[in-house]
Amino acid sequence: MSAASVPTIALSNGVAMPAIGLGTWPMTDDEATVAVDRALRIGWRLIDTAENYQNEVGVGRAIRASGVDRSEIFVTSKFNRKWHSVAGVREACEASLTRLGLDYLDLLLVHWPNPDQDRYVEAVEGLVAAQEAGLVRAIGVSNFKTTHLARLFERGLVPQVNQIQLDPWHRRDDIAALARTKGIVLESWGPLGRGGGLLADPVLAEIAAAHGRTPAQIVLRWHVENGWIALPKSSDPLRQAQNLAVFDFALSVEDRAALDGLDRPDPDMPDSDVFGH
Description:
The protein has 277 residues and is an alpha/beta fold. It has a single domain, classed as TIM Barrel (Alpha-Beta Barrel), CATH 3.20.20.100. The protein has helices at residues 29-42, 56-66, 86-100, 120-132, 146-154, 173-182, 202-211, 215-226, 237-244, 253-260; strands at residues 8-10, 16-18, 22-23, 46-48, 74-79, 105-110, 136-142, 161-165, 185-189, 229-231. Helix 1 packs parallel to helix 2 (56-66), helix 3 (86-100) packs across helix 4 (120-132) and helix 7 (202-211) packs across helix 8 (215-226).
């Protein structure tokens, strides 16, 4: 698949973001150098990393090694709680750019709200300043619940993206509904279930068999048809190619309904009111 065949989604500020991206956690620098280079060469154009992943150096190496023009690659990073201030975000952004070896980021996110320190509103204000300075093209948040977003809205702050855990077993309907009303694009980390058994679900297996596709392709297509940007992580060449090949078929109304019915409680799901870094 060529990069040209991967559609984009327009963010609220007009920036075009690829409709699927490569996750890089928990790759090391060396692993990311190989996996991201390979992914870029076969058509992936959205690469997601973070300060906390400790692989930004490797991602940057891969971008330079791939031979793909920087303007064609959409690079996302995220920063930790210690930088939750206007000045801190600028410092965090510049540090990520140095590690990546880039002049700008396409998207920068607050990695976790960390409400215990109550500075995530300042962090988003810092993102606005970084965007106005031309360091980032788009800004957003990650792992923000509706309550966290409401605090931002009170200050007139509306992120362009919210990256959350999201898959057919974790539907996050309240966040998705709010995002639609505010024009926020949702990204999903762990879109294939984080190894928790989602891909072995018999409902999913039946749909995959009917389409002649892998269960992972069915889940990724579900994301595409909902308008959500999935970030599957894989360093395997075959799976990288398969995960990108989800734009040439469609789910039926019955398929969508069956997948939508898989949501289930998960007491082990990270709670961003108490977890963060």
